[in-house]
Amino acid sequence: MYSSNLKGFILAMVSSAFIGSSFIIKKKGLRKAGVNGPRASSGGYGYLLEPLWWVGMLTMIIGEISNFVAYIYAPAVLVTPLGALSIIVSAVLAHFMLKEKLQKMGMLGCLLCIVGSTIIVLHAPEERSISSVEEIWEFATQPAFLLYTASAIATALVLILYCAPRYGQTNIIVYIGICSVIGSLTVMSIKAIGIAIKLTLEGTNQAKYFQTWIFAMVAITCIIIQLNYLNMALDTFNTAIVSPIYYALFTSFTILASAIMFKDYSGQSASSIASELCGFITVLSGTAVLHSTRDPETPLITDLYTPLSPKVSWYIQGNGELWKQKDEDESSPSFITILRQDYFK
After folding, report:
1. If pLDDT is split at 50, 70 and 90, which confidence band does 330 have?
2. Which residue among 85, 170, 176, 234 is least enclosed by CB atoms within 10 Å?
3. Quick check: is 329 in a domain?
4. Domain identity same for 136 and 210
5. Is residue 94 packed enough to be buried (19+ CB in 10 Å), middle (13-18) or exposed (0-12)?
């Protein structure tokens, strides 16, 4: 039991390190792609031709695979909060590689996120034993989780269809909210697939059940949506802020979904539940501190031929100095001289 949890713990730590690094590598790729064409935040897909972005994708895939395997050996309430390490990795790397300065208050925000996630881990409920994918399907089709799924999909659709076109470029919660809500469904599907793989390796073939393939299709669909809007968030906002906010919301929705689907908190004492709530409040406080220290990014100039439209006005005097510029835009003396010569011709 302890050996299994140790494997899950190590894999979760490795996953967080790779995922945190992938934020930085992908953003550098997005920046390079944005110089030569439409940015991802504007709906462009030029980053698909940028090798550096694919290196970041490969790094994220390695991290996600490690995370996937970690769910096989350890409960979700242990694996998911350990994603806090990715906050530290991405914030530190962004500070040195992307020149996104991490203020002292930002460091405090990171610390609060880590403390909150530690509290969550220490008071997390135990994972129940599951014997087949059909049992997970029963959990997924219970009325409470169906209501959560419908609410999550409805929220994502509102954010995608209404909020993203209007507020996506100015409000970081829009893109991150889509990733987090959809991400909670991703984790539930991935957990089901992980359990199916584990049971299959133990000798009970789960590939024969149609539920396994439904969970796989849901996971793939949700991952594609997450990646699209995560790219948009990374291309629009400061990486040191995207990472912790994504972690806080993603962890919150994932643990909520797990609690509804698997009834993780049934039988938990009031003190343990209160400690979990304190952990969430601490994490959310950390993200609020980080958000308050966010420096707006300087937008890239995509059209070098856009006129600046200076307001220049001229007037004529009768004292020999026929052309004068009113101080709204300075011109060189040679330009004024040419105007004078042209006037006397």
Report:
1. very low
2. 170
3. no
4. yes
5. buried
Residue-wise pLDDT for 52-87, tens only, equals 888 988 998 899 888 888 877 777 777 777 777 777
According to the 3-state scheme, what is the secondary structure of 186-225? Answer: HHHHHHHHHHHHHHHHCCCCCCCCHHHHHHHHHHHHHHHH
Query: Which tokens belong to 284?
Result: 């959310």
Nearest C-alpha neighbor of 196 from the set 252, 146, 132, 274 = 132
Euclidean distance between CA atoms 264 and 258, whole angstroms: 7
CA distance 149 to 30: 32
Tens of pLDDT along 85-109? 777 777 778 777 877 777 777 788 8
Which among 174, 176, 186, 175 has a CA at the least distance from the CA of 244?
A: 176
- From the centroid of its chain, how far is CA 263? 27
Residue 200 resides in a domain: yes
Distance CA 239, CA 314 (A): 48
Q: Please say which residue of 213, 244, 265 terminates a domain.
A: 265
Nearest CA-CA partner of 70 in 18, 145, 105, 31: 18
- Could you give the residue ranges of the DSSP H alpha helices within the chain? 2-35, 51-73, 76-79, 84-97, 104-122, 133-140, 143-158, 164-167, 172-201, 210-236, 239-262, 270-292, 333-344
Task: Express each pLDDT in 105-138 by its tens digit.
Answer: 778 887 887 888 778 777 766 666 788 899 999 9
Residue that is written with structure tokens 């996971």 in the block: 219
Alpha carbon of 63 to those of 16, 204, 344: distances in Å? 7, 28, 74
Do 157 and 86 lie in a common domain?
Answer: no
In this prediction, residues 176-199 reach a mean pLDDT of: 91
Helix (H) or strand (E) holding 314: strand 314-315
Which H or E element spans position 325?
strand 324-325
Q: Look at residue 254 in the predicted model and tell me its pLDDT.
A: 87
